[in-house]
Amino acid sequence: MKSLSKKFREGGEVIGLVPTMGYFHEGHLSLMRKARGECERVVVSLFVNPLQFGPQEDYHLYPRDEDRDAKLAEKEGVDILFIPSVSEMYPEGYATFVEVKRLTEGLCGRFRPGHFQGVTTVVLKLFNIVKPHKVYFGMKDYQQLKVIERMTRDLDLDIEIIPCPTIREADGLAMSSRNSYLSTEERKAATVIYRSLLEAKETYRKGETKAKVLKEIVGGILRGEPLVRRIDYVEIVHPETLEPLEEVGEEGAILAVALYIGKARLIDNILLREEV
Amino acid sequence: MKSLSKKFREGGEVIGLVPTMGYFHEGHLSLMRKARGECERVVVSLFVNPLQFGPQEDYHLYPRDEDRDAKLAEKEGVDILFIPSVSEMYPEGYATFVEVKRLTEGLCGRFRPGHFQGVTTVVLKLFNIVKPHKVYFGMKDYQQLKVIERMTRDLDLDIEIIPCPTIREADGLAMSSRNSYLSTEERKAATVIYRSLLEAKETYRKGETKAKVLKEIVGGILRGEPLVRRIDYVEIVHPETLEPLEEVGEEGAILAVALYIGKARLIDNILLREEV
Question: Percentage of chain B with pLDDT > 70?
């Protein structure tokens, strides 16, 4: 991979990277398409990164299908599907970790200690190996996006981070590899997530700006669904600092939720801002 | 700096970096000379990095003389003396830190919590800004050298770390910007450090391999000097893992000390190995 990147760069080609954990869905494919449209070379990395899973989390359960992924990537015109092994990424004696403070403290960071350290560490390694000019991230993982943006700026990397809209199923559920954990019944119940976000957004549009009220709308709807077995958070935060807000102001806000349905921890978010 | 590095690289020039905190002495100059002999472009960074000083340490006391440094660098044929400001390196909102575990736990890391995190963070930033092919570090800061080597490998950086021998005064004292803190009397007393290391090395050469005995030789000599007001450690460690050793084995060992004379925290080390 390194020698290919070097060759691409020496040839003056713009390299786009789509970092993934595989088991591609339309969300991943939309990132590949966007990269394909903007870059001479598109690299998709596929690495289920053990470092970003907690000891009680679903690392071993995480769905994998490299053959199918390879076909899908090829269909999207991806130049390179980069699939390093765990022992290549973290050989014996590995000891280096990257951490972004503050932005990682709230939201998912509070419920998944070490998760973002795992994400920033692997993403920095992928950046250094692939040497991309542009990197594509989905907005479903909004906190991840902001953390990576911060790291990229702080570490003086010459990389453009490109946020891409969340892709949803026809019934509104945000695409996620973890949706595959859901039974038919759970899958149906999962539509409650986006429905609750839209309801809060509608109330915001009608003039309600108090975070407490908007969060309670989401919480009320989610608690009404018996298959939602645990809610990690319903939060309204500043779109850049991710600090909790009491009021949705001029800069808007991100309304974000994380919850469990069956074995799946699902996250979603929506932007509250006047012009959108 | 970034656009210059880009230009150099595009021109196929090898970039050498000598990262420093300034107040150049022969140690720094020897690194510059080595870089000058091996690289088309020599960049010396001068940045007294607040992140690697503890709250009770000598950040504000640290000696500075940019005009003198500029003249010395020019005399060595350095192409660029890169002097970023603190607010350029750590602008408001800065939040990203790099940590190397294990290697940073013993020796100076035990006595200077956060020090190596400050070092690895700033060095990674300098690497990303200057984009060097080769980087030159002195072996006086042996633990720093090993930590940087580890980080460079772990983060998949295409950079060669080049260790350079410690440069000493005529009486054996390792060159250090912090030597400037010493009074005439303290300066004289400071020769005890290298003397004690040489004495232990001589005993090792004669066949003694027990770390305890060798450390006691050093400790005894140091404690015999009244101006040594505190000894942080006298350690014998594996040259690569930096794990404390009970016995100097085939792979040799580093005998390292850190102590205070007056306001100055001084460190030094020596390699114990058969062939050297």
Answer: 100
Q: Is A128 on the interface with B (CB under 8 A)?
A: yes
Q: Is there a contact between A48 and A64 (Cβ–Cβ < 8 Å)?
A: yes
Question: In this structure, is the dihedral angle defined by the CA atoms of residues B271, B232, B242 and B97, taken in order, positive or negative?
Answer: negative
- A182 DSSP 8-state letter: -
Cβ–Cβ contact B157 with A under 8 A: yes
Inter-chain CB proximity A98 and B96 less than 8 Å? yes
pLDDT digits (tens, 9 = 90+) for B218-247: 999 999 999 999 999 999 999 999 999 999
- pLDDT tens-digit map of B105-134: 999 999 999 999 999 999 999 999 999 999
Looking at domain B2-164, which CATH architecture does it have? 3-Layer(aba) Sandwich (3.40)
Locate CATH 3.40.50.620 in chain A.
2-164
Chain B residue whose CA is closest to A240: B93
- Contacting A residues, span 137-156, partner chain B, CB-CB under 8 Å: 150-151, 154-156
Phi, psi of B56 (to 5 degrees): -95, 5
Strands (E), B92-198: 96-100, 134-138, 160-164
The CATH number that domain B177-272 falls under is: 3.30.1300.10
Give the CA-trace dihedral at A90, A93, A95, A96, to 10 degrees: -50
**This model's pTM is above 0.90:** yes
Burial B18-53 (b: 16+ CB within 10 A, else e): bbbbbbbbebbbbbbbbbbeebebbbbbbbbbebbb
Catalytic positions of A, written as ranges: 28
| Chain B residue closest in CA terms to A9 | B10
* Average confidence (pLDDT) over A178-206: 98
Helix (H, G, I), strand (E, B) or coil at B257: strand
A99/B2 Cβ within 8 A: no
Chain A interface test: which of B51, B92, B96, B243 (most A C-beta within 10 Å): B96
List, for residues B177-189, the tens digit of each pLDDT value: 999 999 999 999 9
Q: Where in chain A is the domain with CATH 3.30.1300.10?
A: 177-272
Nearest to A150 among B2, B96, B124 (CB): B96
In this complex, the residue of B101, B156, B157 whose CB is nearest that of residue A97 is B101
* Pairing of β A96-100 and β B96-100: antiparallel
